[in-house]
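queue> holo job accepted (4'-deoxy-4'-aminopyridoxal-5'-phosphate)
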Amino acid sequence: APVLDGLPQQPADPLLALIGMFRADPRPDKIDLGVGVFRDDGGATPVLDAVKHAEELLLARQDSKSYLGADGDRGFVALLEPIVFGADAANPLRTGVQTPGGTGALRLGMDLLARARPDMAIWIGEPSWANHVPTAAAAQLTVRRHRFFDQVSQRLEIDAMLAGLAQARPGDALLLHGCGHNPSGATVHAADWLRIAAFVRERGLIPFVDLAYQGLAHGLEEDAAGLRILLEAAPEALVAYSCDKNFGMYRDRVGALWVQATDGDALARARSNMLSLARTFWSMPPDHGAAVVRLVLSDPLLRASWEAELAGMRDRIAGLRRAVAATEPRLAALAEQTGMFSLLPVSAAAVTALREEHGIYMAGDARINVAGLRLEDVPRFVAAVGRWLG
Ligand code: PMP
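queue> job finished
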Protein backbone atom coordinates (compact mmCIF):
# COMPACT_ATOMS: atom_id res chain seq x y z
CA ALA A 1 0.00 0.00 0.00
CA PRO A 2 1.22 3.55 -0.61
CA VAL A 3 3.12 4.98 2.36
CA LEU A 4 0.80 7.93 2.70
CA ASP A 5 -2.16 5.58 3.16
CA GLY A 6 -0.89 5.30 6.71
CA LEU A 7 -2.16 8.79 7.45
CA PRO A 8 -5.48 9.04 9.27
CA GLN A 9 -7.84 11.85 8.22
CA GLN A 10 -7.60 14.80 10.61
CA PRO A 11 -10.67 16.83 11.54
CA ALA A 12 -10.99 20.18 9.75
CA ASP A 13 -10.28 23.26 11.85
CA PRO A 14 -13.78 24.22 13.05
CA LEU A 15 -13.05 27.97 12.89
CA LEU A 16 -11.91 27.70 9.26
CA ALA A 17 -15.07 25.73 8.47
CA LEU A 18 -17.04 28.56 10.05
CA ILE A 19 -15.38 31.07 7.70
CA GLY A 20 -16.59 28.99 4.75
CA MET A 21 -20.14 28.86 6.07
CA PHE A 22 -20.13 32.60 6.72
CA ARG A 23 -18.93 33.37 3.19
CA ALA A 24 -21.62 31.17 1.68
CA ASP A 25 -24.40 32.84 3.71
CA PRO A 26 -26.28 35.27 1.39
CA ARG A 27 -27.96 37.27 4.22
CA PRO A 28 -26.71 40.87 4.05
CA ASP A 29 -27.01 41.42 7.82
CA LYS A 30 -24.96 38.35 8.86
CA ILE A 31 -22.49 38.90 11.71
CA ASP A 32 -19.07 37.19 11.91
CA LEU A 33 -17.88 36.69 15.50
CA GLY A 34 -15.73 33.67 14.64
CA VAL A 35 -12.05 34.11 13.83
CA GLY A 36 -10.03 36.12 16.36
CA VAL A 37 -8.86 39.16 14.45
CA PHE A 38 -9.57 42.77 15.35
CA ARG A 39 -12.14 44.50 13.15
CA ASP A 40 -13.00 48.16 12.92
CA ASP A 41 -16.60 49.37 12.94
CA GLY A 42 -16.75 48.82 9.18
CA GLY A 43 -15.78 45.16 9.63
CA ALA A 44 -12.25 45.61 8.21
CA THR A 45 -8.94 44.43 9.66
CA PRO A 46 -6.75 47.26 8.35
CA VAL A 47 -2.96 47.52 8.33
CA LEU A 48 -2.01 50.02 11.09
CA ASP A 49 -0.69 53.39 9.88
CA ALA A 50 2.48 52.96 11.94
CA VAL A 51 3.05 49.58 10.30
CA LYS A 52 2.47 50.95 6.77
CA HIS A 53 4.97 53.73 7.38
CA ALA A 54 7.55 51.37 8.81
CA GLU A 55 7.07 49.09 5.81
CA GLU A 56 7.82 52.02 3.50
CA LEU A 57 10.97 52.77 5.49
CA LEU A 58 11.98 49.14 5.34
CA LEU A 59 11.49 49.00 1.59
CA ALA A 60 13.63 52.10 1.13
CA ARG A 61 16.37 51.18 3.62
CA GLN A 62 16.80 47.42 3.63
CA ASP A 63 20.06 46.70 1.87
CA SER A 64 20.29 42.93 2.27
CA LYS A 65 18.13 39.88 2.78
CA SER A 66 21.03 37.70 3.80
CA TYR A 67 20.48 35.27 6.71
CA LEU A 68 20.26 36.71 10.21
CA GLY A 69 20.46 33.62 12.42
CA ALA A 70 18.25 31.25 14.39
CA ASP A 71 17.53 33.96 16.98
CA GLY A 72 16.13 36.33 14.34
CA ASP A 73 16.17 40.11 14.75
CA ARG A 74 17.96 40.91 18.01
CA GLY A 75 17.02 44.58 17.89
CA PHE A 76 13.35 43.58 17.74
CA VAL A 77 13.71 41.37 20.81
CA ALA A 78 15.65 44.04 22.74
CA LEU A 79 13.11 46.78 21.98
CA LEU A 80 10.23 44.61 23.20
CA GLU A 81 11.90 43.89 26.55
CA PRO A 82 11.07 47.20 28.30
CA ILE A 83 7.48 46.91 27.05
CA VAL A 84 7.09 43.38 28.38
CA PHE A 85 9.30 43.40 31.49
CA GLY A 86 9.24 47.08 32.49
CA ALA A 87 11.87 48.09 35.04
CA ASP A 88 13.25 44.53 35.04
CA ALA A 89 14.04 44.62 31.29
CA ALA A 90 17.80 44.36 31.75
CA ASN A 91 17.67 41.25 33.97
CA PRO A 92 20.78 39.24 32.97
CA LEU A 93 19.09 36.00 33.94
CA ARG A 94 16.66 36.25 31.02
CA THR A 95 17.23 35.63 27.31
CA GLY A 96 14.96 35.93 24.29
CA VAL A 97 14.77 34.96 20.64
CA GLN A 98 12.46 35.95 17.80
CA THR A 99 9.94 33.29 16.79
CA PRO A 100 7.32 32.86 14.05
CA GLY A 101 4.37 34.30 16.00
CA GLY A 102 3.16 33.40 19.45
CA THR A 103 2.48 29.89 18.20
CA GLY A 104 6.15 29.44 17.31
CA ALA A 105 7.13 30.74 20.74
CA LEU A 106 4.77 28.31 22.47
CA ARG A 107 6.04 25.35 20.45
CA LEU A 108 9.69 26.28 20.98
CA GLY A 109 9.17 26.76 24.72
CA MET A 110 7.28 23.51 25.11
CA ASP A 111 9.94 21.54 23.27
CA LEU A 112 12.56 23.21 25.44
CA LEU A 113 10.71 22.05 28.56
CA ALA A 114 10.31 18.54 27.16
CA ARG A 115 14.04 18.38 26.43
CA ALA A 116 14.88 19.66 29.92
CA ARG A 117 12.58 17.28 31.79
CA PRO A 118 10.81 14.74 29.58
CA ASP A 119 8.51 13.47 32.34
CA MET A 120 7.14 16.86 33.41
CA ALA A 121 3.49 17.78 33.07
CA ILE A 122 2.22 21.08 31.75
CA TRP A 123 -0.95 22.34 33.44
CA ILE A 124 -3.41 24.13 31.18
CA GLY A 125 -6.60 25.80 32.38
CA GLU A 126 -10.10 24.87 31.27
CA PRO A 127 -11.03 26.46 28.98
CA SER A 128 -7.97 27.62 27.08
CA TRP A 129 -6.99 28.61 23.54
CA ALA A 130 -7.76 25.64 21.28
CA ASN A 131 -4.13 25.31 20.13
CA HIS A 132 -2.54 25.06 23.58
CA VAL A 133 -3.20 21.39 24.28
CA PRO A 134 -2.32 20.16 20.75
CA THR A 135 0.92 22.15 20.83
CA ALA A 136 1.92 20.70 24.20
CA ALA A 137 1.02 17.22 22.95
CA ALA A 138 3.10 17.76 19.79
CA ALA A 139 6.05 18.61 22.05
CA GLN A 140 5.47 15.26 23.83
CA LEU A 141 4.58 16.93 27.13
CA THR A 142 2.06 15.35 29.46
CA VAL A 143 -0.97 17.65 29.62
CA ARG A 144 -2.96 18.08 32.84
CA ARG A 145 -5.94 20.39 33.20
CA HIS A 146 -7.19 22.62 35.99
CA ARG A 147 -10.36 24.68 36.29
CA PHE A 148 -10.11 28.32 35.34
CA PHE A 149 -13.41 29.85 34.27
CA ASP A 150 -17.06 28.86 34.59
CA GLN A 151 -19.04 29.63 31.45
CA VAL A 152 -22.48 29.61 33.08
CA SER A 153 -21.66 31.89 36.03
CA GLN A 154 -19.01 33.79 33.98
CA ARG A 155 -16.71 33.60 37.01
CA LEU A 156 -12.99 33.11 37.30
CA GLU A 157 -12.40 30.06 39.51
CA ILE A 158 -9.14 30.73 41.28
CA ASP A 159 -10.00 28.55 44.29
CA ALA A 160 -10.84 25.57 42.09
CA MET A 161 -7.77 26.28 40.01
CA LEU A 162 -5.42 26.16 42.98
CA ALA A 163 -7.23 23.13 44.40
CA GLY A 164 -6.62 21.29 41.12
CA LEU A 165 -3.03 22.43 40.99
CA ALA A 166 -2.44 20.91 44.41
CA GLN A 167 -1.74 17.72 42.43
CA ALA A 168 1.09 19.31 40.46
CA ARG A 169 4.61 18.06 41.14
CA PRO A 170 7.54 20.42 41.69
CA GLY A 171 9.02 21.23 38.30
CA ASP A 172 5.72 20.93 36.44
CA ALA A 173 4.91 23.85 34.14
CA LEU A 174 1.83 26.06 34.46
CA LEU A 175 0.59 27.78 31.30
CA LEU A 176 -1.05 31.14 31.99
CA HIS A 177 -2.57 33.75 29.69
CA GLY A 178 -0.90 37.08 30.49
CA CYS A 179 -4.01 39.15 29.68
CA GLY A 180 -7.22 39.08 27.66
CA HIS A 181 -7.85 35.38 28.26
CA ASN A 182 -8.81 33.42 25.14
CA PRO A 183 -11.64 32.32 25.06
CA SER A 184 -13.21 33.72 28.25
CA GLY A 185 -12.00 37.34 28.49
CA ALA A 186 -11.78 36.70 32.25
CA THR A 187 -9.78 39.38 34.01
CA VAL A 188 -7.20 38.17 36.50
CA HIS A 189 -6.80 40.93 39.06
CA ALA A 190 -3.58 41.78 40.92
CA ALA A 191 -4.79 39.99 44.06
CA ASP A 192 -5.37 36.82 42.01
CA TRP A 193 -1.96 37.09 40.35
CA LEU A 194 -0.35 37.41 43.78
CA ARG A 195 -2.11 34.25 44.97
CA ILE A 196 -1.08 32.35 41.85
CA ALA A 197 2.50 33.64 42.14
CA ALA A 198 2.74 32.62 45.81
CA PHE A 199 1.39 29.16 44.92
CA VAL A 200 3.82 28.76 42.03
CA ARG A 201 6.74 29.71 44.21
CA GLU A 202 5.74 27.51 47.12
CA ARG A 203 5.14 24.46 44.88
CA GLY A 204 8.17 24.99 42.68
CA LEU A 205 6.16 25.23 39.45
CA ILE A 206 7.58 26.86 36.35
CA PRO A 207 5.22 29.48 34.91
CA PHE A 208 4.90 29.68 31.13
CA VAL A 209 3.13 32.95 30.35
CA ASP A 210 1.43 33.33 26.97
CA LEU A 211 1.14 37.07 26.29
CA ALA A 212 -0.62 37.42 22.94
CA TYR A 213 -2.76 40.52 23.50
CA GLN A 214 -0.63 43.08 25.34
CA GLY A 215 -2.32 46.48 25.10
CA LEU A 216 -5.67 45.12 23.94
CA ALA A 217 -7.08 44.47 27.42
CA HIS A 218 -6.40 47.28 29.94
CA GLY A 219 -3.29 48.94 28.52
CA LEU A 220 0.34 48.12 27.70
CA GLU A 221 1.61 48.41 31.27
CA GLU A 222 -1.48 46.99 32.96
CA ASP A 223 -1.51 43.94 30.67
CA ALA A 224 2.03 42.98 31.69
CA ALA A 225 1.38 43.30 35.44
CA GLY A 226 0.53 39.62 36.03
CA LEU A 227 3.53 38.43 34.07
CA ARG A 228 5.83 40.70 36.06
CA ILE A 229 4.42 39.43 39.38
CA LEU A 230 4.98 35.82 38.29
CA LEU A 231 8.50 36.41 37.00
CA GLU A 232 9.49 38.05 40.24
CA ALA A 233 8.15 35.13 42.26
CA ALA A 234 9.49 32.27 40.13
CA PRO A 235 13.20 31.70 39.59
CA GLU A 236 12.56 29.82 36.34
CA ALA A 237 9.93 30.95 33.81
CA LEU A 238 9.07 31.17 30.11
CA VAL A 239 7.24 33.88 28.18
CA ALA A 240 5.69 33.38 24.74
CA TYR A 241 4.87 36.70 23.08
CA SER A 242 2.89 37.65 20.00
CA CYS A 243 2.91 40.98 18.13
CA ASP A 244 0.37 39.63 15.68
CA LYS A 245 -2.65 41.20 17.42
CA ASN A 246 -1.26 44.35 19.02
CA PHE A 247 0.49 45.33 15.76
CA GLY A 248 -2.20 43.82 13.53
CA MET A 249 0.44 41.73 11.72
CA TYR A 250 -1.31 38.36 11.91
CA ARG A 251 -0.05 36.77 8.71
CA ASP A 252 3.49 38.11 9.10
CA ARG A 253 4.02 35.84 12.12
CA VAL A 254 5.78 38.06 14.66
CA GLY A 255 6.65 36.73 18.09
CA ALA A 256 9.32 36.03 20.68
CA LEU A 257 10.21 33.53 23.40
CA TRP A 258 12.03 34.48 26.60
CA VAL A 259 13.43 32.14 29.20
CA GLN A 260 14.38 33.09 32.74
CA ALA A 261 16.88 30.83 34.52
CA THR A 262 18.45 30.58 37.97
CA ASP A 263 22.05 31.32 36.93
CA GLY A 264 24.08 32.44 33.95
CA ASP A 265 25.33 28.98 33.09
CA ALA A 266 21.84 27.46 33.01
CA LEU A 267 20.67 30.43 30.96
CA ALA A 268 23.43 30.00 28.37
CA ARG A 269 22.59 26.32 28.01
CA ALA A 270 18.89 27.14 27.71
CA ARG A 271 19.65 29.63 24.93
CA SER A 272 21.81 27.12 23.07
CA ASN A 273 18.89 24.70 23.16
CA MET A 274 16.43 27.36 21.99
CA LEU A 275 18.69 27.95 18.99
CA SER A 276 19.25 24.29 18.17
CA LEU A 277 15.52 23.54 18.39
CA ALA A 278 14.72 26.57 16.23
CA ARG A 279 17.19 25.31 13.60
CA THR A 280 15.21 22.10 13.22
CA PHE A 281 11.78 23.80 13.31
CA TRP A 282 12.15 26.80 11.00
CA SER A 283 15.90 27.42 10.91
CA MET A 284 15.27 31.15 11.12
CA PRO A 285 12.11 33.10 11.81
CA PRO A 286 10.60 35.22 8.99
CA ASP A 287 12.17 38.67 9.04
CA HIS A 288 9.67 41.14 7.65
CA GLY A 289 7.25 41.57 10.56
CA ALA A 290 9.93 41.73 13.24
CA ALA A 291 11.90 44.29 11.22
CA VAL A 292 8.74 46.40 10.91
CA VAL A 293 8.05 46.21 14.66
CA ARG A 294 11.69 47.15 15.32
CA LEU A 295 11.30 50.24 13.12
CA VAL A 296 8.04 51.23 14.80
CA LEU A 297 9.51 50.89 18.29
CA SER A 298 12.74 52.71 17.49
CA ASP A 299 11.10 55.81 15.95
CA PRO A 300 9.36 58.04 18.53
CA LEU A 301 6.72 59.26 16.07
CA LEU A 302 5.87 55.81 14.76
CA ARG A 303 5.82 54.49 18.27
CA ALA A 304 3.39 57.18 19.43
CA SER A 305 1.24 56.48 16.37
CA TRP A 306 1.22 52.74 17.19
CA GLU A 307 0.30 53.36 20.83
CA ALA A 308 -2.57 55.61 19.76
CA GLU A 309 -3.86 53.05 17.26
CA LEU A 310 -3.55 50.31 19.88
CA ALA A 311 -5.52 52.44 22.35
CA GLY A 312 -8.14 52.95 19.64
CA MET A 313 -8.52 49.18 19.17
CA ARG A 314 -8.72 48.63 22.92
CA ASP A 315 -11.29 51.40 23.39
CA ARG A 316 -13.45 50.10 20.58
CA ILE A 317 -13.57 46.64 22.18
CA ALA A 318 -14.28 48.09 25.64
CA GLY A 319 -17.04 50.29 24.18
CA LEU A 320 -18.70 47.29 22.55
CA ARG A 321 -18.50 45.39 25.84
CA ARG A 322 -20.16 48.27 27.67
CA ALA A 323 -22.86 48.54 25.00
CA VAL A 324 -23.69 44.82 25.23
CA ALA A 325 -23.77 44.91 29.05
CA ALA A 326 -25.92 48.05 29.11
CA THR A 327 -28.43 46.53 26.68
CA GLU A 328 -28.71 43.16 28.46
CA PRO A 329 -28.06 42.94 32.23
CA ARG A 330 -27.67 39.15 31.97
CA LEU A 331 -24.55 39.86 29.88
CA ALA A 332 -23.15 42.36 32.40
CA ALA A 333 -20.06 40.20 32.89
CA LEU A 334 -18.88 41.11 29.39
CA ALA A 335 -18.11 44.64 30.57
CA GLU A 336 -15.87 43.27 33.34
CA GLN A 337 -14.04 41.05 30.88
CA THR A 338 -11.25 42.29 28.64
CA GLY A 339 -9.59 41.60 25.34
CA MET A 340 -11.06 40.27 22.16
CA PHE A 341 -13.05 37.31 23.44
CA SER A 342 -15.95 36.28 25.60
CA LEU A 343 -17.52 32.89 26.12
CA LEU A 344 -21.27 33.44 26.07
CA PRO A 345 -23.26 31.54 28.71
CA VAL A 346 -25.33 29.69 26.10
CA SER A 347 -25.55 26.09 24.87
CA ALA A 348 -24.30 24.48 21.67
CA ALA A 349 -27.93 24.39 20.49
CA ALA A 350 -28.05 28.17 20.91
CA VAL A 351 -24.89 28.56 18.83
CA THR A 352 -26.50 26.60 15.99
CA ALA A 353 -29.80 28.48 16.23
CA LEU A 354 -28.08 31.87 16.30
CA ARG A 355 -26.26 30.91 13.11
CA GLU A 356 -29.21 29.37 11.28
CA GLU A 357 -31.97 31.76 12.36
CA HIS A 358 -30.07 35.04 12.75
CA GLY A 359 -26.88 34.73 10.67
CA ILE A 360 -24.77 35.25 13.80
CA TYR A 361 -21.61 33.15 13.55
CA MET A 362 -19.47 32.15 16.54
CA ALA A 363 -17.25 29.25 17.58
CA GLY A 364 -19.01 26.05 18.70
CA ASP A 365 -18.20 26.67 22.36
CA ALA A 366 -20.03 30.06 22.10
CA ARG A 367 -16.82 32.05 22.04
CA ILE A 368 -17.33 35.40 20.37
CA ASN A 369 -14.78 37.79 18.93
CA VAL A 370 -16.24 40.96 20.45
CA ALA A 371 -14.48 43.08 17.81
CA GLY A 372 -16.57 41.33 15.15
CA LEU A 373 -19.60 43.37 16.26
CA ARG A 374 -20.41 46.75 14.81
CA LEU A 375 -21.87 49.13 17.36
CA GLU A 376 -25.11 49.25 15.37
CA ASP A 377 -25.34 45.42 15.50
CA VAL A 378 -25.43 45.36 19.30
CA PRO A 379 -29.22 45.61 19.82
CA ARG A 380 -29.95 42.90 17.25
CA PHE A 381 -27.16 40.68 18.60
CA VAL A 382 -28.34 41.06 22.18
CA ALA A 383 -32.00 40.43 21.28
CA ALA A 384 -31.05 37.21 19.47
CA VAL A 385 -28.78 35.95 22.26
CA GLY A 386 -31.21 37.04 25.01
CA ARG A 387 -33.65 34.26 24.15
CA TRP A 388 -31.03 31.70 25.12
CA LEU A 389 -29.83 33.18 28.39
CA GLY A 390 -30.77 31.51 31.67
N1 PMP B 1 -1.86 32.56 22.35
C1 PMP B 1 -3.16 32.88 22.37
C2 PMP B 1 -3.89 32.86 23.68
C3 PMP B 1 -3.81 33.20 21.19
O1 PMP B 1 -5.12 33.51 21.22
C4 PMP B 1 -3.09 33.20 19.98
C5 PMP B 1 -3.73 33.54 18.67
N2 PMP B 1 -5.04 33.23 18.51
C6 PMP B 1 -1.74 32.87 20.01
C7 PMP B 1 -1.17 32.57 21.23
C8 PMP B 1 -0.89 32.79 18.79
O2 PMP B 1 -0.75 33.93 18.06
P1 PMP B 1 0.09 33.98 16.72
O3 PMP B 1 -0.88 34.27 15.63
O4 PMP B 1 1.07 35.06 16.96
O5 PMP B 1 0.75 32.66 16.55
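queue> The pocket of 4'-deoxy-4'-aminopyridoxal-5'-phosphate is lined by residues 36, 101-103, 129, 177, 182, 210, 212, 242, 244, 250, 255 (CB under 6 Å).
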